[in-house]
Design goal:
Helix content is 65%, strand content 2%. The protein is mainly alpha-helical and 667 residues long.
Length: 667
């Protein structure tokens, strides 16, 4: 009770309650004329505010605000006032812990915060002016108090800041403070205030924030720096997100040109990044920390945000990114086997977004070569082999999984690689034809028995599909994505379909009868169904054949050359037990396509011959029901969502709903 005697008692034998002492101190704050008396009273309130917050706030909050506005020349007094206000507006913390300004607030703290924001004389303007004070504690505590108020009522505080003539400018000036702790608090406050407020975003951007933020990133060690780097990049993300004018300003002030340097984690990559020949087998591995990965993911998110589909700036940003050499360091990240799968996948997605629907970028990507070391003896004098980037990317999508990487973890890399291939091929019929020309059967150059690095893109896809027993047991997604990529190559391109139809299986020199790849795939689907393998294996082949046969009567005729194909489809459609409903639907859809496009004059089985099978052995109604159930399934709808961008799986593992690809759902 010595404290109460010191500040509130009249005589040595009298004691006051805490409430009485607080009221006397509040009166002194309001009525004292001497600075030292005011300072002593504020210090007394500060000491009581932690334990008696409600009483202190009710009695002293308004006098403290008045004193802050009218007598703010003494730094020690200001420091005490600001620290007291922070305590009053901060939620209760567990005993023994430091109060957490960022935690959920109590009702009392919210009440006091609202009182400050409702102040008629606008104490917020006074606080913004105090941000220009040179004293460390005044400036630091002012930023802390503004951050605390923003947690309670961010929208109201943002309105007050916007009406203050130099309000936003004062906040941005914090980025240039040489005292790191103040600068870092300023970054946190700006992150909170720019998350959704487009007006503040614009003003902050035009206060030279882009240059300041990127400068801090460089000072803190670049993308390999600490959490301050992540905060700067997050603020950069906030300023650009859904803000067209800021994106224009960022590009016009050469912000896009500075992005490639953020992607470089090793100085040795710089040369590769400039000449477009990244080395996929660099000897020096970079150690990836959790913070390094987080920083890089924010950079990649910024890149992808600038080139979102439908954005009016997308084409301009795609062009700028290509011109400043963004793709080579992205390829370095995608091929960095020591990097986290989340980083590798986002790098692949970013490359795909840069070249998607951009003919010039697609053509330039087609010419990029990546140098890989030859397999075999490590001491061999063989020279490194330059390979087209698209071949390496397809190898990521359907090739063997790196040792020590789980199927679920590597799935996101396969998905991102497939996205890049689709972005390269989409709207690019020449690229489709070029990839179709590499399709070769096992036994030719690029045999399935050869190492993956010796195979062309097309031969690798074919060998994975035909060797599904081995590849599917190791990783079913190898087969699934091989089917998806071949569907992408064949989609809506008659010449590519014709090229694929020429592929035959069987060595004539050894007396084997050539067998069309199309019918071999149907045979593989039959074996997959009989072996009770993962339904995705059968679906992968069925959906591929469906894409192949759309508007392609010659392909239908080839399929009908093998009479067992029709019998197999009927068996799958009519199966009452042991047949997956999705497989039934895919088989029914394929049967419908066969019937619809059976238009060749020399077809082995005309429509007149197919109709009795459709009407009597299958039933038109049952066929339609099977197809409708397929379309209504959550698995099919999930694929439709992926195609439209409704769903995303950029960071997570394997979604349980993934059975179909967007190429099939677009048929």
């Amino acid at each position: 009770m010595d404290f109460f005697k010191r500040y509130g008692a009249i005589g040595p034998s009298q004691q006051q309650s805490p409430s009485e002492t607080i009221q006397r101190l509040a009166d002194r704050v309001e009525t004292s004329t001497l600075l030292e008396d005011k300072k002593a009273a504020v210090l007394g309130l500060k000491g009581l505010s932690r334990e008696y917050r409600k009483e202190t706030g009710e009695a002293a909050l308004l006098p403290l605000l008045k004193l802050l506005k009218e007598d703010n020349d003494d730094q020690n007094l200001l420091k005490a006032i600001l620290e007291t206000l922070i305590t009053l507006c901060t939620r209760d913390s567990p005993r023994g812990e430091t109060p957490n300004v960022g935690a959920a607030t109590s009702d009392v703290a919210s009440q006091f915060s609202q009182t400050i924001l409702d102040d008629g004389d606008d104490v917020i303007s006074t606080m913004l002016e105090l941000l220009g004070d040179a004293d460390f504690y005044v400036r630091y505590n002012t930023v802390q108090l503004l951050g605390t108020l923003h947690l309670h009522s961010g929208e109201e505080l943002q309105k007050r800041v916007l009406v203050s003539p130099m309000g936003v400018g004062r906040l941005v000036d914090l980025l240039s403070d040489q005292r790191d702790i103040i600068r870092n608090e300023g970054i946190q406050l700006l992150i909170a205030m720019t998350e959704t407020n487009a007006d503040i975003q614009k003003i902050v951007a035009f206060e030279n924030a882009f240059d300041r933020l990127l400068g801090i990133v460089d000072e803190e060690g670049g993308v390999r720096g600490n959490i301050v780097v992540q905060d700067c990049l997050q603020l950069l993300h906030n300023l650009l997100n859904y803000n067209v004018s800021n994106q224009n300003f960022f590009r016009e002030t050469s912000g896009v040109q500075r992005l490639p340097n953020l992607l470089i984690t090793d100085p040795s990559q710089t040369a590769a990044g400039r000449n477009g020949l990244p080395d996929a087998d660099a000897d020096d591995e970079i150690e990836w920390t959790v913070q390094h990965a987080r920083n890089m993911l924010v950079v990649l998110d910024v890149i992808r945000m600038l080139i979102q589909p439908g954005n009016t700036n997308t084409v301009s940003n795609q062009t700028a990114m290509q011109q400043c050499g963004t793709i080579p360091p992205l390829l370095q990240l995608a091929l960095a086997y020591e990097a986290p799968s989340s980083v590798r996948s986002q790098a692949l997605y970013a490359i795909g977004d840069i070249i998607r629907s951009h003919e010039a970028n697609q053509n330039l990507f087609q010419r990029i070569l990546i140098t890989t070391a030859p397999e075999g003896d490590a001491e061999s004098d063989a020279k490194p082999i330059p390979e087209p980037a698209i071949v390496i990317v397809i190898r990521l999508a359907v090739g063997k999984r790196p040792q020590g990487v789980a199927v679920n973890e590597y799935y996101i890399v396969r998905a991102a690689a497939a996205h890049l291939v689709q972005a390269y091929v989409g709207g690019n019929p020449d690229a489709q034809l070029a990839l179709a020309a590499t399709l070769t059967p096992p036994g030719d150059a690029g045999s399935a028995s050869e190492p993956e690095t010796h195979q062309s893109a097309g031969s690798l896809i074919v060998s994975v599909l035909l060797d599904w027993r081995e590849t599917g047991s190791e990783d079913v997604w190898r087969v699934w994505y091989a089917s998806m990529l071949l569907s992408t190559i064949l989609r809506d391109h008659i010449e590519c379909k014709e090229q694929a139809l020429k592929i035959t299986i069987g060595d004539i020199a050894q007396g084997e009868e050539p067998f069309p790849l199309l019918n071999e795939l149907m045979s593989q689907a039959r074996q997959a169904a009989q072996s009770e393998s993962d339904a995705r294996l059968s679906l992968a082949i069925f959906t591929l054949v469906c894409v192949w046969l759309v508007d392609f009567p010659r392909g239908v005729s080839t399929l009908l050359d093998e009479s067992s194909n029709v019998a197999f489809l009927v068996e799958q459609i009519n199966g009452s037990s042991g047949v997956n409903a999705l497989v039934q639907g895919a088989a029914a859809f394929l049967f419908g396509l066969v019937y619809q496009f059976d238009l060749e004059p020399e077809t082995p089985m005309s429509r007149e011959n197919l109709y009795p099978i459709l009407s009597k052995r299958v039933g038109a109604d049952q066929l339609l029901i099977r197809v409708q159930r397929l379309r209504d399934s959550k698995e099919f709808q999930y694929a439709v969502g992926l195609a439209s961008g409704t769903h995303s799986n950029a960071y997570g593992g394997i979604p349980i709903e993934v059975y179909f690809d967007n190429v099939f759902t677009d048929v």
